[in-house]
Amino acid sequence: MSPLIRLSALIVPVLALMLALWPAAQPAMAQNLFATVAQVNDSVVTRFEVIQRARLFQVMRRPNVTEESALQSLIDDRLKQEAARNAGIVPTEEDISFGLEDFASRANLTGEEFLIAVSEVGIEPETVRDYVRTLLLWGDVVRERFTARARPSDAELDRAMALGTEGGSTRVLLSEIILPISAEVAAATRERAAALTEIRGFDAFSAAARRFSVAPSRTDGGRLDWLPLSDLPPQIAPILLTLQPGDVTQPIPVQGGLALFQLRALEDRRPPLAGQVTLDYAMLRFPAGTDLGAEATRLRAETDRCDDLFGVFKGAGEDRLQRLSEARSALPGGLAPVLDRLDPGELAVLPPRVAGAGGGIVMLCERAEIREEDLSREEVRQQLFIRRLEAFGEAYLAELRAAAFIETRQ
């Protein structure tokens, strides 16, 4: 059976969009598909790449996909690729193949099956491979540049575990400085931002806000009112939890500029950090030699939820079909990452662990947060580390974009 059937939930929006936009798209298609639509330093982006990226984003269920958003994504990719070249970072074919397999596994497909499926809606294999390759490149660039700065100290970790990292009723009192980052002032802005991160006094930060900030709050020395931690962007909240009053964040990219925040006070009204989940799932076991791919295809066509499995396998004993509910931390090895990729009603194949053994199919029934169970210290450390890396990466990309020569053409 065609892999397209297994990817139908992702592909249908693409087909609908193509049909809806076909009359309007004909003039653009009549143009030279390989015409340059943007120049980014010494690299170019073609019309063909923009069309391909927009289709790929539809398959990925990105919200509000337009040719403009696809173009901006490709411009960012050119900057990331250039940064990787300058750092001497080159992924191997084995790295790219592994990345493609991981990317395709989110749709419960192998890399080859994914490429076949998306080709049926006009997406070239190289479009997917280039996208995955850039993800790998950029990840290596960010880790190489910022790992040491992103790793939280024990004191910062203690504070984050005491306060939590999301939601709740914790409030923060901040001051802000927003610096412009246009191409003309990018270099000066980066130097100024680096200097401002060293400020510790409240009066000194307020004076700098009045002098350099372009935000309306500059007239009040950058001071903001109390803000719920849950209202802040997710890349900012964990960073603030590691600060002491008077500390200043690293530069954070915002619309049209770089932002620095000074923590003035933090009010804790919340319980300890909680982020563990209970996973309700159904497990099907099959004897050795079963074509698990064919079984999975059949079940996707016949079931929408876990209860349906008990109708398909009516009378099956617990050795064949079980429904289980466990904390994620208690799941057997290898199962948690599989269930993490699934939405309720989706299923995945579990290959045999050893030659000659039987395999299985798992379906996620429901995912529920456990508020009474704290995250482990290592889980909190990893969460903070990843979010800090993301924030550093976004700030670095904003700097690259501001300093680059970028010209778009209609």
From TrEMBL:
Entry keywords, A to Z: Isomerase, Rotamase, Signal
Gene Ontology molecular functions: peptidyl-prolyl cis-trans isomerase activity
Residue intervals of the PpiC domain: 169-265
InterPro entries linked to this entry: OMP_Chaperone_SurA, PPIase_dom_sf, PPIase_PpiC, Trigger_fact/SurA_dom_sf
UniProt KW Signal keyword: yes
Classification via Pfam families: Rotamase
Keyword Cell division included in the entry's annotation: no
Signal peptide coordinates: 1-30
Protein name in UniProt: Parvulin-like PPIase
